[in-house]
Fold Cytochrome b5 heme-binding domain-containing protein.
Amino acid sequence: MLRYPGEMEYNNYETNIMSEKEITMEEVAKHNKADDCWLVIGNDKTGGPKVYDVTNYLDDHPGGAEVLLDVGGQDADEFFEDIGHSKDARDELEKHLVGTLKLDEAELKRRAEAAAKAAEKGAGGMNVMVILIAILAIVAAYYKTQM
């Protein structure tokens, strides 16, 4: 997205100018029907959660409209990422951008806890690796003394 003066964004995928918008999850939740379907997709690794209006794309979605309607009005990032969408799918998604998700205090706290838990889990894996290397070193030293 290219930025122009006046807090505007130019969407490269369409030839329109749209103002930058922050949308609450409460607002997204209202858009959960076939004639009005919004999704939240994105996370800290992908530039943050964004809101997309996929109403006009429902009939064109390769997996069928029902897949999108099942997560309409919700955070669909995990489902989107689990499928492993192509670059073309991600480019198509950008055509439907409405704005960014405004994170409230509860959501910020939830994300911080999830990040801490993930970091803790990752660090635990490293401890196991250190222990395995130490055991291998002891075994190697033992065999060397036996020769």
Residues 130 and 136 are 10 Å apart (CA to CA). Residues 105-146 form the longest helix (42 residues).
